[in-house]
Each structure stands twice: as C-alpha cells, then as structure tokens.
Amino acid sequence: MVMPFEFAPSVKCNSVPPAFEFPIRDDLRGVISYGAPQLAVPVCLNVNENPFPLPADVVEAITAAVRSVATDLNRYPLRDAVVLRQTLADYLAGESGAQVPWGQIWAANGSNEVMHHLFLAFGGPGRLAISFDPTYSMYPEYARDTFTSYLSFPRRADFTIDIASACRQIVSHRPSLILVTAPNNPTGTALDPVDLKTLLSTARECGAMLIVDEAYAEFRRAGIPSALELLPDFANLVVTRTMSKAFGLAGARLGYAVTADPAVVATLSVVRLPYHLSSVTQAVAIAALRHSDSLQAQVATIRRERDALQEWLIGQGFEAVRSDANFILFGTFADRQGIWQRLLDQGVLIRVTGPTGYLRVSIGTPVENDRFRAALVSAVAKEG
Ligand SMILES: *Cc1c(COP(=O)(O)O)cnc(C)c1O
User: Fold this and answer.
1) 362 CA from centroid of ligand 1 (Å)
2) Distance between CA 229 and CA 100 in Å, rounded?
3) Ligand 1 pocket list (CB less than 6 A)
4) Judging by DSSP bridges, how do beta strands 105-108 and 43-44 pair with one another?
5) What CA–CA distances, in Å, run from 236 to 205, 208, 226, 320?
6) What residues does CATH 3.40.640.10 cover in the chain?
7) Which residue in 91, 160, 168, 244 has the fewest CB atoms around it within 10 Å?
C-alpha cells in the first residue's frame, strides 16, 4: 500500500520568503482540493477499484509494451493515438456490439480528463451544465474550473431519474451539457433505455449535449443495454468510459469518450493540451485492451460477489440499493461516520458518501468481502 503522506516535501526551505498576497482566483480562495483519503489499510473498499491484481499474462504484455516504447521516449508521443483509439473501437465491438470508427473515439488521462475536455468545449461562461443528485461529486468541480454554471436536480426516492420532470428542467433552463451517470455513482442505479431516449430527444430539441458517464458499464447486469446503442440515432450523445474500474487500470489513467460524430472529437482535440497522452500510457492501455478476455473472469467474479453481498446486506436488515456497478450503497445509520470509523478501526476502509445515513462499499475479493461482513456486524453491534 502506498502513500500515507501524499505531500511529504522532499526538500525543506530554510528561509521563508516575505509574505505575499497570491493573486488566486476569487472563486478558488479557501477551496481545498478534494479526494477520498488514501490510507494504508488491509482492506481498501472506498474508491471502486478492481480489487484483483492484474493477471500475469497482462502484466507480461504491459511490461513488454513499455519496454518497446522506452527507447523512443526522447520523442513526443503520437498525438492522435490512432492505434489506441482503434483498439478501443475493437474492444467496444466485442463488449457492447457497438460498431464505432476510431475517429468517433476520444481518449485522455482518465475519464476525468475527458470530462474536463467536454466542459472546456461545450461549457464555459454563460453556459449551464445539469445533473441529477445524488451523483458523481466531481461534476461541480469541472464546472467551477471551466466557469460553467452548474445545477443538479434530485432523483426520485429510489434514485431513478424522474424523466418528465428532467425534461421540464431542460426546457426551462436550457443547459448546454447534461450529465447522466449510468450506472450511477454512488447509488449503482441503471438508466432505463426508454427514459434515456426521451432525455436525448428533449436535449436535442434544446440544443444540448447529453453525456452518459458509463464508468461502470462493464458491471451492468445482463439485459441492461449500453447507451452506445443509441449513438447512430442521436448526434448530441457522448458516452464516456474508463479503464480505471473493470479493467483494473486505475493507476494507468486512461478514459475515453465515444461520440456520434467525428466533429465532436475534432472539437475536443482543440481544447486538449499538446501531447496529452504519453507514449507509456498509450502502450499500457493497448496492451491491456488486447488482453481484455483474461479480465472478463474478474468482472464476472465481481458481479457475483456484488449480488451475494447485496442479498447478505438485505438479509441483515439493511437497505441496500440495487446496483449495476462494482459497489453498493447501503444504510441507513443514525451515525454513519461512527460506523465508518469502526470499520476503519478493523482495517476496512469504505466511503462516507450519498444521502445522509448511507455508506458505500466497493466490491472486493471474496476474502475482503468476508472481512467487510464481519467488520460491519461488529461495528453495528457496538453502535448498540
Ligand atoms: C471512477 C469514476 C470515473 C472514472 O474516473 P477516471 O478518471 O477514469 O479514473 C468517472 N465517472 C464516475 C462516475 C466514476 O465513479
């Protein structure tokens, strides 16, 4: 486990410079950077990573790929990452049956950077992005960074989106960006494909891009379609995906957007920084994608473990929200912070997130999930 001291300085300044009033942007004054705690604990179930180490054949392929680009690291990377984008297209054809040419795929350092590009290209001063709460906590930060206004509307009590009401909000507020997370984080809730079509039509009539954040798509239950299927019908649809979750490559930083029109990709490439995707990142991602078959078994195990944990939680009398992702939102607790701490005291790190009273646990290995179960029983017993 790494980095309990993220910002430990390697060089100490002996002399402190005279006080200076830093010309920080007014809206950033006093804002602290946000992120889940990175603690060195035995059972890390807080940021929805794939808990399994990469299989040996994938490690071999990645190592060989990095070795082969190492001699060329004196050169800038391939700016357009065409081989990577083609390999992503091949992967999607197998995973979702979507036939998408590489020219409609955009890749960047994690889907967080993809989202930033989308906000830079389609947001900005005087523009509005909307989403549906509770949802991914980073969206307001992309909006702030890009001077985009941001509004979120509440989901229903079961965490689905009230589509009639969402369409009314779109018509009256005229956003340029609509963000829908499916499966949703932190609730795991799937999006009904009929509802998505209705949203897309309304968004199109109102001139808005609709981004479906499919970070957890690979974990969806059989029969739940991907939004990729709707790309041929809606020019305003963008589907984002990531290799951070199902692929077990959170450390490599590779996310991508699948668009309905190469013109969208052309716009995103205007706002990216030069050579944003390193040769190493491209090589690692291509090697992992070419071995995606050996990762399928891990995804299957995680889905089975998720369904088993869901049933166990319900059997213990908890509320556990039906999840199509690799985590479960559960509760409710009078003192969720207390439960979280008592789990941590037993070496199990989960996440305090979502509506008051709920906690979110990522699906771990079978052994980690057992440790979570035991720790939760004990934490709740102590709550009394
Ligand atoms: C984890 C997650 C991402 C992925 O972020 P990366 O930058 O690709 O690691 C994107 N969206 C949601 C909703 C997530 O939970």
Assistant:
1) 14
2) 10
3) 48, 110-112, 136, 181, 185, 213, 215, 242, 244-245, 250, 255
4) unpaired
5) 10, 7, 16, 34
6) 56-290
7) 168
Peptide bond into 240 cis (omega under 30): no
Q: Which CATH superfamily is domain 43-54+293-383 in?
A: Aspartate Aminotransferase, domain 1 (3.90.1150.10)
Tokens for 273? 């920084």
Q: Which fold has domain 56-290?
A: Aspartate Aminotransferase; domain 2 (3.40.640)
* Angle between helix 82-96 and helix 279-290 axes, rounded to 10 deg: 30
The ligand 1 atom at the shortest distance from the C-alpha of residue 255 is: 8
> Is 32 exposed, middle or buried (CB count within 10 Å of its CB: 0-12, 13-18, 19+)?
exposed
* pLDDT tens for the chain, residues 1 to 384: 444 445 555 566 678 889 999 999 999 999 999 888 889 999 999 999 999 999 999 999 999 999 999 999 999 999 999 999 999 999 999 988 999 999 999 999 999 999 999 999 999 999 999 999 999 999 999 999 999 999 999 999 999 999 999 999 999 999 999 999 999 999 999 999 999 999 999 999 999 999 999 999 999 998 899 999 999 999 999 999 999 999 999 999 999 999 999 999 999 999 999 999 999 999 999 999 999 988 888 999 999 999 999 999 999 999 999 999 999 999 999 999 999 999 999 999 999 999 999 999 999 999 999 999 999 999 999 876
Residue spans in the chain of domains classed CATH 3.90.1150.10: 43-54+293-383
